[in-house]
Amino acid sequence: MKEHTILVVDDNPGDAMLTERAFRKSSIASTLMIVHDGQEALDYLWGKGNHAGRDLRDMPALILLDINLPRVSGHDVLRRIRSDPRTRRLPVVMLTSSCEDGEVGRCYDAGANSYIQKPIDFKRFVEVAHELSTYWLTINESPPAIDR
Amino acid sequence: MKFTPLSLRLRITLGFSVLILLSLGAMLAVEVAGIPGTAIVGRFARQRANVLNDMELVSDLFSQRFINWFNECRKDTEGLSRSPFLRQAVDSATPRSTLELANALEVFLATHPVFECAALVNPDDGSILAAAGVSTNAHCSADIGISPAQLGRLVIPGYTEANEIRFSDITGDRLRVIRQIISLRSPDRISALLIAESNLDSALQALISSRAALRSRNWEFVLASNASGSTTRIREYSADLVSVQHTLPDRNVFPALRMAIAGIEGPYDGPDETGRGVLAFHRQVKLDREIAWGLALKMDRNLALQPAWAGLFRQLIFWFGLLVVGIAACILLARAIARPIQELVVVAQRVEAGDFTARASASRQAELGLLANVFNGMISRLQHWYQDLEREVRERTRALQDSEDEIRRINAGLEQRVVERTAELEAANRELEAYSYSVSHDLRAPLRLIDGFSQAVLEDYAGGLDDKGREYLGQIRGNAQQMAGLIDDLLRLSRMTRVELHREEVNLSDMATGIAHKLQKQVLNRSIEWRIAPGLLARGDRPLLHIALENLLGNAMKYTGHRDRAVIELMQLSAGQEKVFVVKDNGAGFDMAYVGRLFTPFQRLHSSGEFPGTGIGLAIVERIIRRHGGRVWAEASVGQGASFYFSLPEREGP
C-alpha cells in the first residue's frame, strides 16, 4: 500500500521540522510534504509554479494548515481549496499556535474539518500528531478522488 | 357661616340710613321724654304743666271774682241798711210807712238784680215788716227760714252783719245776707233786720261762663260748700254749664276737692272719684270768716294731653317724610359714589384680563375724577411696560434661538468629531487587537520550538548528554512553558478589557455555588466549609462576573490550603445604588503593607513554592469589576485570613 501523503503548510522551518519529527515518531507511516507559504501550498495542490507537472492524481490525504502564512494567508488557502472542485473534498486540519477568540469559528465557517492548537509541550505535540495520523489516515474514510 | 362683604353702595346707604334713624330716634326720645337734668322737658310733661298752669290761673281768677261778688252783695245790703229813709220808715211803723218799705225793697231788687228777694223782719217778734221778690207772701221769720233761736242771735248788739248759705231744693241754694237796721231815734235799738238773698247757681254760672273761665271746654268746675256747718254740697259744672249737685256723704269725693276743702292749694294728677285719670288744680276760696268753699278745676287727663299726642303725630309724620327723603338721598349719594368706583373696577378687571386699552371715563367728582386720571395713567404705564416687555421677550427669544442654533451647529460638529474619534479609536483598538494577537502568536511560536527542540535533543541525543546536560535542558523547557503561561495570562487579561459588556440580572449565590462545586472537585481531600449567602443579586455581565468570582473563590481556596478546616464566605454588605459584596476566607492572609501591589498583574505576595500562581487572577478581577463601574479592595493580616470586597452599581455605569 502506497504511503499517505500529508501536506504541511507552515512558514516556520523549526515548526515544520518538529512537525515532521512528531509524525515520524508516530507509528503510522506517512510521507510529509512541507511547503512554507500559502501560495506554494496552492501551487503544489494545483500543479503550478515549482510543482508544475506534478501528478495531480496524487492528492494529499491530509492538509495541516497554519493560519499566519506569508503571501496567501491560511484562511485564503482554505477558501480556495474549498472553492476548487479538485480539492474541495480534501480534509483540512487547522494546526496553529493561535488561540484567538473567533478564529476557530471563522476557520470552521471556511470549511475546516478540524482545529487544533499546537501544544507548547512537545510531548503533547507528539501525542497529538500520532492521534491525528491515526484518525485521519486509518480511522477516517478518505474522500474518493475526483475524476478528471 | 361665610361672610360676604357688602358692596360699597349698600354700606353707604345702610350707614347713612342708620345715622338718620338714630338721630330721629334721639329727637323722638327728647320730644317725648325730654333730657333729664336739664330744662328741656318732654312734650307731654310740657303739655301737662301748661294745663295745670292754666288751671291755677283760672282758679285764682275765679276765686277772686267769687269773693268780689260776695263783697258786692255785702256792700249793697250795707248801703240799704244805713239808708235814713229806710230807718225812718221802720221807726214810724205806720201802714203808710210799711208800704213805703215795700216799695223801697222793690226798688232795691230792681236796681240790684243779684238779689232775688229781700225782706225786713221785726226783731222782737219775728214778724215780716215788708218783703219783696219771691218772699213777698211771707208773714213771719219762720216763713223765710229763720228760727226764733237764730233770730235771738241776730239781734245781739254790735253784730251788725251775718252771712249764710242756705240749701234749698225748692228755691235753689242761696246766699243770705242779714243786716241789723239801727233806729234813727235811739241808736242803741235794733229796729229791724234786713234779709237779702241771692241765687248761688245763677251767680256761679255767670262767673264760670265769663270769658276767663272758658279756657277749655273740657274743664269741669267742682265746688264744695257747706251750709250751717253740717251739710256739704258739691256742685259740678261742666263746659256746657250743666250743673250737677249732690250732698255729702252720698258717695266718694274727688281727692283734689278734699284737699281744697282742707285749705290745701296745688296741682293734682291722679284718679278722680270714679277712677278716671284727671289733671286738676285745687284751692280754697274763703268768702269770710265762716264761709269757705273748696274749688277744684279738673280735666280728663287723656283729653288734656290730646294736643301733645296730636303734635307728636304731626311731628312723626314730618320726620317720617324726612326719613324717606333722607334715605332716598342716601341711595342717590351711594349710587353717585359707587358708580365711578364700579366703573374703575370694570376697567381694572379688563386690564387684569390683559386689555391694556381699557380707560376709565372722567368723573365729575373731584377725588374720583383724580383717581380715574391716576388709574388711566397707571394703565398707560402698564401698557408701555407690557409692550416693552413683549419686545424684550421677542428679542431675547430671537437671541436665544440664534444661540440655540449656534449650539446645535457646534453640537453637530462635536458629534461629528466624536463619531470620527470613535471610528479612529475603534480602528486603533482593532490594530491593537491584531497587534496583541500577533505578538502572542509570535511569542508563543519560538517558545514552542525551544521546548520542542529541547525535547528532541533529550530524546534523540540522550546518550551524548550527562545528567547535568539533561537537567539544563529540563530547565530550558520548564521556563519556556512558564513563559507561555504568562503570555496566555496576558492575553486573557487584555481580552477582559476588550470584550463587550452585556448587563443582566445575575444571581451571584447560584453562580458561586456552582463554582464552589467545581473547585471542591479539584481538592476532594480538603475540608472546606462554603458559606454562600442565598439570594445575592447583582447586575452585570454573566461570563465576566463568573470569571471574577471564580478567581476570588479560587484564590480563597488556594490560600486556605494550609488550614485543616477552611471557611470561605460570600456575603452582601450593603444594598442600594451600589451593592458591596465580600469574599472572606480564614487562610494565610497577607501583610497590609503590600496591599497596593495586590491588583497589579504578575505581582505576588507569596512565593510560587508556597502557593502556585502567576499573579494575574486579582488583576483580572480588578479589571472586570472596574469595567462594571465598581471597586475592589482588600483587608487582611498575616495568618488571619483575607477579605476581598467588590462593589457593583445597580445602574449602567461607565
Chain-wise SSE layout:
The complex is a heterodimer of chains A (148) and B (654).
Chain A: E1 4-9, H1 13-25, E2 30-35, H2 38-46, E3 62-65, H3 74-83, E4 92-96, H4 103-109, E5 114-117, H5 122-139
Parallel strand pairs in A: 1-2, 1-3, 3-4, 4-5
Chain B: H1 8-33, H2 43-81, H3 84-92, H4 95-111, E1 115-121, E2 128-133, H5 148-154, E3 161-166, E4 174-182, E5 190-199, H6 200-208, E6 220-227, E7 231-237, E8 243-247, H7 255-261, E9 266-271, E10 277-286, E11 292-300, H8 301-352, H9 366-460, H10 467-498, E12 503-507, H11 508-522, E13 528-532, E14 537-541, H12 542-559, E15 566-574, E16 578-585, H13 617-627, E17 632-636, E18 642-649
Parallel strand pairs in B: 13-15
Antiparallel strand pairs in B: 1-2, 1-5, 3-4, 4-5, 6-7, 6-11, 7-8, 9-10, 10-11, 12-14, 15-16, 16-18, 17-18
Helix pairs in contact in B: 1-8, 2-6, 2-8, 3-4, 8-9, 9-10, 10-13, 11-12, 12-13
Describe this structure in words.
- The complex is a heterodimer of chains A (148) and B (654).
- By secondary structure, chain A is α/β, with parallel strands linked by helices.
- Chain A has helices spanning 13-25, 38-46, 74-83, 103-109, 122-139; strands at residues 4-9, 30-35, 62-65, 92-96, 114-117.
- Chain A has a single domain (4-137), classed as Response regulator (Rossmann fold), CATH 3.40.50.
- A 5-stranded parallel β-sheet of chain A has the order 2-1-3-4-5, sandwiched between helices.
- In chain A, helix 1 packs across helix 5 (122-139) and helix 2 packs parallel to helix 3 (74-83).
- The two termini of chain A are 23 Å apart.
- Chain B has 654 residues and is an alpha+beta fold.
- Among the domains of chain B are: 82-195, PAS domain (Beta-Lactamase, 2-Layer Sandwich), CATH 3.30.450; 208-304, no CATH class; 500-649, 2-Layer Sandwich (Heat Shock Protein 90).
- Chain B is built from 13 helices and 18 strands.
- Chain B has helices at residues 8-33, 43-81, 84-92, 95-111, 148-154, 200-208, 255-261, 301-352, 366-460, 467-498, 508-522, 542-559, 617-627, and strands at 115-121, 128-133, 161-166, 174-182, 190-199, 220-227, 231-237, 243-247, 266-271, 277-286, 292-300, 503-507, 528-532, 537-541, 566-574, 578-585, 632-636, 642-649.
- In chain B, the strands form 4 sheets. A 6-stranded antiparallel β-sheet of chain B has the order 8-7-6-11-10-9, with helices on both faces. Chain B has a 5-stranded antiparallel β-sheet with strand order 2-1-5-4-3. In chain B, strands 13-15-16-18-17 form a 5-stranded mixed β-sheet.
- In chain B, helix 10 runs parallel beside helix 13 and helix 11 (508-522) packs across helix 12.
- Chain B is rod-shaped and about 240 Å long.
